Amino acid sequence: MKKLMVLAAGLLQIPVIKKAREMGYYVIAVDDDPNAPGMAFADKAIDPGGLMNEEKLVAIAKEEQIDGVIHPCSEVAMNVMGRINDELHLCGISKEIAIRATNKYLMREAFEAYGAPSPKSILTKDEEDAWNTFCNEFDTNAILKPSRNSGSRGIAKVEKGISKEAFVSLYQRALNESRDHQVLIEQFIEGPEFSVEVIVWKGEPHVLAVTDKKTTEAPYFVELGHNQPSVYPIEIQEKLKAGAIAGCKALGLTYCAAHCELKVQNGEAYLMEIGARMGGDFISTELTHLSSGIDMVAATINVVLGVEPNLNPVEEKHGVCIRYFTPKPGRLISFTGFEPFSDPHIYQMELYHRPGDIIPEVKSSLDRSGHVIVIAPTAQEAICKADKIIEEVKFVTK
Has this prediction a pTM greater than 0.85? Predict the structure, then answer.
């Protein structure tokens, strides 16, 4: 029986842990929280004292004689995963590739060297350098991005004409969210945002789905929902797929899932970033199999274990949409209209807050208050139903 190590055992990792056991693999869940909800579903649970403790995790991997390691829907321990792959000669990305795929500056360099479509991007040294760079190097609006982070954390749009004081405030926010204390300034691409879900097997990217995204407005662009399949014209989808494939090859991805984020401006696709992992927000664990019929979770598990994945549809295809609840900030007093099982189109529905909790202003994906996943014959129908549910659930905050 092959052994799979799963780095992290939170809510987003539970589908992977469950699926791997369902597939007949022995699962070792590793999390620095012994009460992480996914620990209970694994064959063996280990608290390593920190997911960034490379030496300890490599030692555990060797002691357990694992056949593969996966860090689904997260980037925190990607470098650790890469080192485990290197030292145990496993399938999966190397540490070198993991570093490239989690550092937005190195990622941009790789895109440019390969010729993959991406916006202008400059790494800054400090707030003064960033301000001067913005004023002198950009004649358009720009985006401030932490060099290392995910989930919209620290990202902010800066418009031409912004005051230095306001710019510095947004810069400091991005800096505080960056794991390597570096910030990028990038050309702002005006247009809709997408992701492309990919399985890479033996260095060849295979596109499973194109995801349409809905986000908040500037400055934070927090994701409020996604739908599959895309409702955009086929020619736009083909450009998105081509951009994602080029980006995966530019990063040198070999055996992994990939979540490729792009935007479209004037009919052309631009790569924002690529995660060499399954996407969060239930995109890879739920939306992709519901829309494409392809089990992306099973495929990813097999890939990191060196087993050729099944990329053929194995279940019924649906239109699917996820939408997030974002109540007015304040203390949650009450809510009404939350009846998750009253509509047969509701696949999943959950609130993250209860009366008495503080509802934060939505500045990152961590600030959302719940979600609903809806399935329907078409994506457009799923979108309409999901939006209606979001409107019908009423929150009272004070």
Answer: yes
Domains and CATH numbers, the chain: 3-90 (3.40.50.20), 120-187 (3.30.1490.20), 190-304 (3.30.470.20), 321-397 (3.30.470.20)
Compute the 3-state secondary structure of the chain and give helix, strand, coil in percent, each to the nearest 5. Answer: 35, 30, 40
Q: In this structure, are residues 283 and 195 in contact, taking their beta carbons and an 8 Å threshold?
A: yes
Q: Return d(Cα 240, Cα 236) in angstroms, integer.
A: 6
**What is the SS3 assignment for 291?**
helix
Strands (E) across the chain are located at 3-7, 26-30, 44-46, 68-70, 121-124, 142-146, 156-158, 183-187, 193-201, 204-215, 223-228, 256-265, 268-275, 319-325, 330-336, 346-351, 358-359, 370-376, 394-397
> Phi, psi (5° rounding) for residue 325?
-80, 130
> Alpha-carbon torsion 132, 133, 139, 144, what sign?
negative
Handedness of CA 272, 278, 284, 289 (dihedral sign): positive
At residue 150, the pLDDT reads 60
Spatial CA neighbour of 149 closest among 213, 215, 75, 220: 75
Give the burial class of 63: count Cβ atoms within 10 A of its Cβ; 0-12 exposed, 13-18 middle, 19 or more buried.
Answer: exposed
Distance (Å, rounded) from C-alpha 70 to C-alpha 5?
A: 6
CA-to-CA distance for 192 and 187, rounded, in angstroms? 15
- Looking at residue 136, the DSSP 8-state letter turns out to be H
Q: Is 64 exposed, middle or buried (0-12, 13-18, 19+ CB in 10 A)?
A: middle
pLDDT in tens, 307-354: 999 999 999 999 999 999 999 999 999 999 887 667 899 999 999 999
Tokens 């579903």 correspond to 41
| pLDDT at residue 146, as a whole number | 87
Q: Give the integer Cα–Cα distance in Å for 357 and 64.
A: 41
The angle formed by the CA atoms of residues 72, 196 and 389, to the nearest 5 degrees, is 80
Phi and psi at residue 123, in whole multiples of 5°?
-85, 130
Strands 183-187 vs 330-336: parallel, antiparallel or unpaired: unpaired
Among 263, 243, 261, which residue's Cα sits nearest to residue 193?
263
Q: What pLDDT, in 10s, does the model give residues 290-303?
A: 999 999 999 999 99
H/E stretch holding 298 reads helix 296-304
pLDDT beneath 50, residues of the chain: none
